[in-house]
Write a structure and sequence with these properties.
Elements (H helix, E strand, L loop, with lengths): L5 E5 L4 H12 L3 E6 L2 H8 L5 E5 L5 H11 L4 E6 L15 H29 L2 E6 L12 H20 L5 E6 L1
Parallel strand pairs: 1-2, 1-4, 2-3, 4-5, 5-6
Length: 177
C-alpha cells in the first residue's frame, strides 16, 4: 500500500459522499470510496486514480470487517461516515417500527460500526479525523420526520460522546449537519 494518507468514505456512491471523495482525491488522499451501489462507485473511481471503489454495507458487520481486512495497516487518517437515509415520511402514529429500525441501523449503528472499525488504525498511526454527516434534523424536529430526526439526534449524540471518550487522543471528531 502507498504511504499516502487514506480517507475512508461511506455512502460514497452519490451526494455528499461522492462529492467528498472527489474533493479528498483532488487533495492527494487515497480515497476508499465505499457503498452498496458498486456500479456508481465504479463510475466514481474512474474519475480519479486516487479513488478506489469498495463495496460496503454499514448495516452488516461482516461487510465492515471485510473492509478493514482490505485496509490492512493502511495509513487511514480520515473517516467520513456519509452513509445514511430517511425511509419514510409518516407521522409517529402511522409509522412502521421496521422502518425506524432500518433508519437507526444505517444512520446510528452503521456509524458506530465504522468508528469502532477505523479508530484502531487512527490510534496505531497516531492521528485521525472522524467526520459524521448528520443533518439539520439532528437539531430540529419536523412533522412526519420522526424516524429520521430521532436517528440523526442519535448520531449527533454519538459525536458528542466520542469527543468526550477520545479526549486526549490525536483524533478529531466533527459533525457536519
Amino acid at each position: 500500500m502507498s504511504t499516502r494518507e487514506y480517507a475512508v468514505i461511506t455512502g460514497a456512491s452519490s451526494g455528499i459522499g461522492a462529492a467528498t471523495a472527489r474533493a479528498l482525491a483532488a487533495n492527494g488522499y487515497h480515497v476508499i470510496a465505499a457503498a452498496r451501489r458498486v456500479d456508481k462507485l465504479a463510475a466514481l473511481a474512474a474519475e480519479s486514480e486516487n479513488i478506489e471503489a469498495v463495496e460496503l454495507d454499514v448495516t452488516s458487520q461482516s461487510s465492515v470487517d471485510a473492509l478493514v481486512a482490505k485496509l490492512g495497516n493502511a495509513p487511514v487518517s480520515v473517516l467520513v461516515h456519509s452513509a445514511g437515509g430517511a425511509f419514510d415520511a409518516d407521522s409517529v402514529m402511522d409509522s412502521d417500527p421496521e422502518l425506524w429500525q432500518k433508519t437507526f441501523d444505517i444512520n446510528v449503528v452503521g456509524a458506530v460500526r465504522m468508528v469502532k472499525a477505523i479508530t484502531p488504525l487512527f490510534r496505531e498511526h497516531r492521528k485521525g479525523h472522524i467526520v459524521l454527516i448528520t443533518s439539520t434534523a439532528a437539531h430540529r424536529t419536523y412533522e412526519n420526520g420522526g424516524s429520521y430526526a430521532a436517528a440523526k439526534f442519535g448520531e449527533a449524540s454519538l459525536v458528542d460522546t466520542l469527543r468526550l471518550e477520545l479526549n486526549g487522543e490525536p483524533i478529531r471528531v466533527t459533525e457536519i449537519a
